[in-house]
Amino acid sequence: MEASAPAKVILFGEHAVVYGEPAIAVALNLRSRVRIFESNEYRVNGYPLERKYHGYILNAIKLCWRGPPLEIFTESEIPSSSGMGSSASISVAMVAALLSTTGKVKEKEVARLGFEVEYETQGRASPIDTSTVTHGKGVLIDRQKRENFLWRIEKNGIYWNIHHVDVPRLKLVVGFSGIKASTGEMVAKVRRFYQWNSFARDVVREIGRLTLRAIGPLENEDYEEIGELMNRNHKLLTILGVSHPMLRKMVESVKRYSYGAKITGAGGGGSIVVLTDEQDEVIKALQAIGAQGYKVEISNKGFSVENQN
């Protein structure tokens, strides 16, 4: 059995989504693939299955598999630690491959179990990554149930409503700073600010309002407005304290070639996402300051079971 899932990037709403505000993410045209075969022992890419190296795969097996040992092969076009959801992509592809051995796979079930795999492996998670790579296209996550509702995911008394969002085939560049920051530390830093400062709470609410304002421009392919909202979202994230000197340098370096650019993901390092018609120029500008650039576009394809025996 073979299955695959795309990468993703958060366009609006990171950090604010932790406090119940909406966020928008899109699937990207880079993919992870998983192939599974019955075997005499569990192996991944020729090596014994070990929690230290294969936590996502191991937890997918625990949740979704009751059969014999498996020989598992993985490959990925998605750079790790780049803010493009490499772990969510592998988790969803693995879940889809395992479920497909017993019959037809439902999108909602893949999204739910993919989230459970990430939650179990990381100790905490939002379903935005796994729902986006399951569904493809664009996804809005919100506490409120809105138009184009897809499914609802609950965990420990917290719930998220997942919705489809129409998005054009945006040309994006994900710029990776090369600096790996702890998501947990960044989330905790924002939480302290949020708990003790009413201004921080106002900023979080403004990010939520801005995210909802982005739905119309995305559906109408208004690149100028999308870019402006990305720039404003970036400034609000900077106020929350999750920027980094390298991220600021990266955003500044691509301004002349882009509609907008912002931190994507946890911040403190990591990546930015750039909306541009000049992907090659953006990548050159990023390389000139020591960062990496990945040319990406929106993928309409979510998870896929690509081969059944």
Architecture overview:
The chain is α+β, with helices and mostly antiparallel strands and 309 residues long. It folds into 2 domains: 2-168, Ribosomal Protein S5, domain 2; 171-297, Alpha-Beta Plaits. 41% of the residues lie in helices and 28% in strands. It is built from 10 helices and 13 strands. It has helices at residues 51-64, 86-100, 107-122, 128-135, 183-196, 198-213, 215-220, 223-239, 245-254, 279-288; strands spanning 2-12, 23-38, 43-44, 47-48, 70-76, 138-142, 149-155, 158-165, 171-176, 258-264, 271-276, 292-297, 304-307. The strands form 2 sheets. Strands 1, 2, 3, 4, 5, 6, 7, 8 and 13 form a 9-stranded mixed sheet that branches. A 4-stranded antiparallel sheet has the order 10-11-9-12. Helix 1 (51-64) packs antiparallel against helix 3, helix 2 (86-100) crosses helix 3 (107-122) and helix 5 (183-196) packs across helix 6. It is globular and about 55 Å long. The model has no long low-confidence stretch (mean pLDDT 92).
